[in-house]
Specification:
Layout lengths: L34 H10 L3 E6 L4 E4 L2 H5 L15 H5 L6 H11 L6 E6 L5 E11 L2 E11 L1 H45 L6 H28 L7 E3 L1 H13 L5 E7 L6 E3 L1 H17 L5 E12 L4 H4 L4 E10 L6 H4 L19 H11 L3 E6 L5 E8 L20 E5 L3 H13 L3 E5 L2 H10 L6 E5 L7 H11 L5 E5 L4 H9 L4 E4 L4 H11 L2
Parallel strand pairs: 7-9, 13-14, 13-15, 15-16, 16-17
Antiparallel strand pairs: 1-2, 1-5, 3-4, 4-5, 6-8, 9-10, 10-12, 11-12
């Protein structure tokens, strides 16, 4: 390498300085005495290597360092005897912290490692090792390793685990709240059917019903975030859906300029049109709220093929996707806000200006469609949401039954682990003229059904129960009677499990909280 580093007579060449092992060349294996081979060895290292003298002057660097720090080859910044500070100036975030550590390591025999964030977004792991000559520390060897991708994947995994945990919590809360609403709704329905109820009382009861519906809709948004809603997919053209949704939105937001740009022909995707409409409306509303004094929203769609050539760019499985971009000229967001926008109840719009569930619902719906959502934003420079929907995706569809008036004089077995839900459900069915048997668990319900197999016409089965859940109880009922008629009921609907039970022959599904009319319709439709 012919470095001839005569700074204070420290070293004659690098092979005398890299390590105490190399201080005496006569002790080296013969192949390491070949300076060219030694340099080739250093150059073959994937990490960037920088040798710095006692005064902070650069003594040696390998070519990998150029690429890692994005510095042109032969840049004067890296030509000895430039200083370490010259080399890193303007490139490191929180450079004062880094150079404070450099000063601490001055003359030290300590080996040290840490991470370094660069202004260009890269993250390096670095190792600093003392450089010995004649058993004295005469500088340091700095090795830099690019861990940007590893950190991105770690962050992505942590975010996914966090969202999954929040989703599980949200789903559990939604299930419990829906059971509470079920009791309120059931009692309200029964009171509305009371002949002694006054006109004033009925008006108040209908107000209660209206607010129960509002609360149930809010809980549905929570379930949407958690990915716990059943959806009804069909083949749709997203550009057509967006066009119709924009017309609906544009009528009430005249201060906003909306522009569309669609690729033709656009691949069709299999999706729930109502849920995708909700996604678009929520993103448009979010953009509108970020532009209190007006602005521009742009919506674009195109086809995207992810293959081996560009998979590292998109970080998605190979395949065909429809890409939707929704951008605005609003206030934008900083990085810390971007990390939290998909959390339930997180909002930047202040109290009284929304539930904070809009973007959480968007996230849940897109994940429920096996899609991806990415956000790019900068404070004061607007926001861009990019959605990716897989084209080659199949989802089993669920049938919808025609409405039917109630059919009385039959016996219904209701199975639910919530005692108050059993009481209200029994009262509602009795009011409709049905004979009712009840069970507080799946095991008890299966036993009652087996004992009354010829006297039970229908089972209303709760989805989520301890010991034996809805699926296990349904399988047991089918084992007892292959012709059993069952309506699945739940405070939330686990898409995969509910679909599996419906596909196994379960007759219908009813979402809690339900009122007298919807229960009558479902039961009557099966017992016609």
């Amino acid at each position: 390498m012919n470095l001839n580093l005569n700074d204070d007579g420290i070293q004659e060449n690098l092979d005398e300085t890299m390590s105490p092992t190399f201080c005496n060349s006569c002790e080296l294996p013969s192949f390491f005495q070949d300076e060219r081979l030694f340099q080739a060895t250093i150059e073959s290292i994937k990490d960037g290597v920088l040798v710095v003298g006692e005064k902070g002057n650069i003594l040696y660097r390998n070519s990998q360092l150029f690429d890692m720090w994005e510095i042109p080859d032969q840049s004067p910044e890296l030509i000895p005897p430039k200083l370490l500070k010259d080399f890193t100036a303007g490139r490191i975030k929180n450079s004062d912290t880094f150079f404070s550590k450099v000063e601490q390591l001055h003359g030290s025999r300590e080996k040290y490692s840490d991470t370094l964030a660069l202004e260009n977004g890269k993250i390096f792991e670095y190792f600093s090792t003392p450089l010995f000559y004649s058993e004295m520390v005469q500088g340091r060897v700095w090795t830099f390793r690019d861990i940007t991708e590893r950190k991105r994947l770690e962050s992505q995994l942590i975010h996914a685990q966090k969202m999954e945990a929040i989703g599980t919590l949200a789903a559990g809360m939604a299930h419990d709240f829906n059971n509470i609403l079920m009791i309120i709704q059931g009692c309200t329905s029964l009171l509305l059917m009371d002949e002694n109820s006054s006109g004033y009382g009925n008006r108040r009861l209908k107000e209660i019903e209206k607010h129960v519906k509002t609360a149930a809709d809010l809980i549905q948004q929570l379930l949407g975030f958690a990915g716990k809603t059943i959806h009804f997919p069909q083949s749709i053209d997203i550009s057509e859906l967006i066009g119709k949704t924009i017309l609906l939105f544009d009528r009430n937001h005249s201060a906003i300029s909306l522009h569309e740009k669609h690729h033709h022909p656009l691949w069709k995707v299999t999706a729930d049109s109502l849920q995708l409409e909700q996604v678009v409306l929520n993103l448009l509303a979010n953009a509108w709220q970020s532009m209190p004094h007006g602005g521009t929203i742009r919506v674009e769609t195109d086809n995207l093929l992810v293959d081996k050539k560009n998979i590292d760019e998109y970080h998605m499985p190979c395949g065909r996707y429809v890409r939707v971009k929704i951008s605005d000229t609003g206030m934008g967001m900083d990085h810390s806000t971007q990390k939290r926008i998909f959390e339930p109840f997180f909002t930047t719009h202040g109290m009284g200006r929304g539930s904070g569930l809009g973007l959480a619902t968007v996230y849940g719906i897109i994940k429920n469609h096996d899609g991806e959502i990415r956000v790019e934003s900068q404070k004061g420079h607007g926001t861009l949401f990019t959605l990716y929907f897989p084209v080659d995706r199949t989802i089993q569809e669920h049938r919808e039954e025609d409405p039917m008036t109630m059919n009385a004089c039959k016996t219904v077995l209701i199975i639910d682990d919530e005692e108050m839900v059993l009481d209200v459900g029994t009262a509602m069915l009795n009011k409709m003229g049905y004979q009712v048997l009840s069970a507080g668990s799946g095991l008890e319900g299966a036993k009652i059904y087996e004992e009354n197999i010829h006297g039970i016409d229908l089972v209303i089965l709760d989805m989520i129960m301890p010991a034996a859940n809805g699926k296990e109880t349904y399988d047991k009922l089918k084992e007892i009677d292959p012709e059993v008629k069952v309506i699945l009921s739940s405070g939330y609907s686990l898409n995969d499990q509910a679909a599996e039970i419906l596909d196994c022959g379960c007759n219908d599904f009813i979402q809690k909280p339900f009122n007298m009319a919807s229960l009558s319709q479902k039961v009557g439709n099966i017992l016609r």
